[in-house]
Amino acid sequence: MTKKKMAIKNKSKIKQFRFNFDGVQKAKSVGRILFAAASVVCIVFLGNKIVGVYEGVWPVREVVLENEPRYFQKNALIEFVRQQPVQGMLAIDLSEIQRQAKRLDWIKNIEVRKVWPDKLIFTVEEHQPVAMFDNQVLTQQGGMIKNDTRSSWSVELPQISLQHKDEEQAEKANDEKFYMAVWREYKQVKRQFELLNLETDLLQVDQLKNWQLSFTNGLQINLGRKEREERVARLLQVYGEIKDKQKIKKIDLRYLNGLAIEWKTET
Question: How many CB atoms lie within 10 A of CB 193?
Fold first, then answer.
């Protein structure tokens, strides 16, 4: 089937995002419209065998994105629609369009409906981002959005950097469950540090799985490979007694019953 070209049409006065199909032909006579309407009854009985006959009847002329997207790119939806065969309103398969559209980045759920005689309306529910893992974004539902490196993520999302020791560990890291497990533990640790008025800036996980946290005030804390929540809890008990906290450069919690402090060098 020949695909039709589309032109983008923006209307700043309307919050909805719209783009129109060019080059499609409307029904040229009232007789054709009446014939097409009557044919709906036939489709009920003849099913898929007759759908092809009406692919050009009441062609789609306008597509509307009903809600303004926050994360996914409008151009991605435009390209998606462009790749679809241009079909008439009688023949278009909404369930298939919805199934395919859910493969697009950031789209959690999508509803497509027809508005006669020639309009399709898309309503999109987006995934919600929770953390940035190197060049990938973890969503609230546990999925990963790859290669989305917009600069705003460095401000909007917690930053987590992973280093992988070998191919086996790297392959494991591609498992979405692995990322979600790291994120859940990080959230708990982050809440503990908030009790000390310490705001996390970056989590780095090295090849040995040691966790090193950097904070917005420049402080660095090494939590080690295990019992991280217990180690933070131990720090909570003594942190208030430490003097000259602003002079602390690093804290190492990888000790059984204590901690080590590295002080800033005076210049």
Answer: 19
Q: Which of 126, 148, 163 is the last residue of a domain?
A: 126
Cα(149)–Cα(137) distance, integer angstroms = 9
Compute the CA torsion angle 226, 230, 233, 237 (nearest 10 deg): -110
Q: What's the structural domain count of the chain?
A: 2
Complete edge-to-edge strand list for the sheet that includes strand 248-252: 144-146, 136-139, 129-133, 159-162, 200-205, 211-215, 220-224, 248-252, 260-263
Same domain flag for 185 and 217: yes
Express each pLDDT in 171-194 by its tens digit: 555 677 888 999 999 999 999 999
pTM of the model: 0.71
DSSP E strands in 22-147: the ranges are 62-65, 107-115, 119-126, 129-133, 136-139, 144-146
Residue 23, by phi and psi: left (phi above 0), alpha (psi -120 to 50) or beta?
left
**Domain assignment present for 69:** yes
Q: Torsion-angle region of residue 3: left (phi > 0), alpha (psi -120 to 50) or beta?
A: beta
Looking at the fold, whether 118 and 31 belong to one and the same domain comes out as yes
